[in-house]
Design a protein that fits this description.
CATH superfamily of one domain in chain A: Rod shape-determining protein MreC, domain 2
CATH topology of chain B: Arp2/3 complex 21 kDa subunit ARPC3
CATH architecture of chain B: Orthogonal Bundle
Mean pLDDT of chain B: 82
Largest sheet of chain B: none
Helix content of chain B: 55-70%
Mean pLDDT of chain A: 82
Strand order of the largest sheet of chain A: 1-2-5-4-3-12
Oligomer: heterodimer
CATH class of chain B: Mainly Alpha
Strand content of chain A: 25-35%
Largest sheet of chain A: 6 strands, antiparallel, barrel
Order of helices and strands of chain B: HHHHHH
Number of domains of chain B: 1
Low-confidence stretches of chain B: none
Number of strands of chain B: 0
Order of helices and strands of chain A: HHHEEEEEEEEEEEE
Number of strands of chain A: 12
Chain lengths: ~270, ~170
Amino acid sequence: MGNKGRIIFVSILVVLLLIVGALYFFNMNIPYFQYIERGIYNSLSPVVEFFSDLYYSTISYWQGIFNVDEVMEKNKRLKQQIVTLKLENLRLESYKRENTRLRDLLSFKNHIPFETLGATVIGFSPSLWENKAIINRGSNDGIRKKMPVISYNGSLVGRVAYVGSSSSQISLIHDPEFTVGGIVQRSESRTIGMVNGQLNNEQVNIMDKISWDADIQTGDIIVTSGFSNNYPKGLPIGEVEEINSDNYGLSQSAKIKLFSSLKTIEEVLVIKDF
Amino acid sequence: MNRNIIFVLILIIGLILQVIFFSVYKPWGIKPDFLLVIIVVTSLLEGPKTGLLIGVIGGLLQDIFLGNFISINTILKGPLAFISGFLEGHFYKGNYFLAPVATFFTSIVYYLLAIILSEELIFSINYWFTIRTVILPSALYNAVLSFIIYFIFYKTFYGGEKYYGR
């Protein structure tokens, strides 16, 4: 390519960049572009999933070999736990029957558990500024945008931010852009505030906009408030670690230690019917 | 095979590594930008033209994996790779310390521009804290990675020969 050709090539690329820059800044959506985007995403995500599976299975295989004593010990402990849990389950079954009977007597509205779908985390966002996880379920499995995502212990993990055909991305709870309404679980308090993610801390979120005289203490459990209709009410978020005065004493903010350990998150549940 | 296609394949491998490895195992919580490292190293070895192309494709791949087709990475990575590509021909390619230095400074510029261009981050973060705890450590991590990647690329594509200029 001659000098002239090179200049033309670079100019075309610069012009293209300026156009895409303008598209980005003016937030324009061109349908044709979306098809290309989805096409590339949907063809790349199975490759990522394949390598992720391969990588994690190799790691766990070697971990199993190197920690065989620990695995056997854990196996023994879990077997004992199963027996205890079976007994507890039997006891709870009887409570459940009793509960149903009493609810029927009082004609209470039945509490329906959410319909959830299990998913495996196959990777994390490649950006420094966004905390997103990629899961192996997509629109083919019925996943839609904005569905809440919880961990196996029931605490809030995030919400679905982008859906591909067989994989989707979750905006994680500690993402700086993530905001959820929180409420103190203690029945005599019910203090509300907004729980926000922080850029450089995966374990602690900040709950702010708490009124200056609110009843909030360290150790309080914060759950989702359910005011926004984006999340069901009562999903555990975390525990109050520290309370500070905010806005020159006009409000308070609290550091919330998150329940979900997002460093080790491997499997999540997507709430489908909310 | 056309060298540009090889670089695009390397970018895809880089994206997979970033998604399944570098974003998961973060020593001291530091996350590198492996694609930025590949892009800067490629443009240092191949010059501004290839750099711009690889930068745009790499940025685009990264943006698609963040759920936005054209976003901050496409807009920033192309021009940054183009600019760092101008170093090509001005330095002795066997000097393995060029890549870490260039990557370190490119990373800092890239991260700062990414904050300035993001409406969510520009007013909400503590700049000095972010520079100290996120930008500088990550730029340093990128620099270390670029040393390794430059070494591998230089040995693979140039056979490690004493190669001056274009």
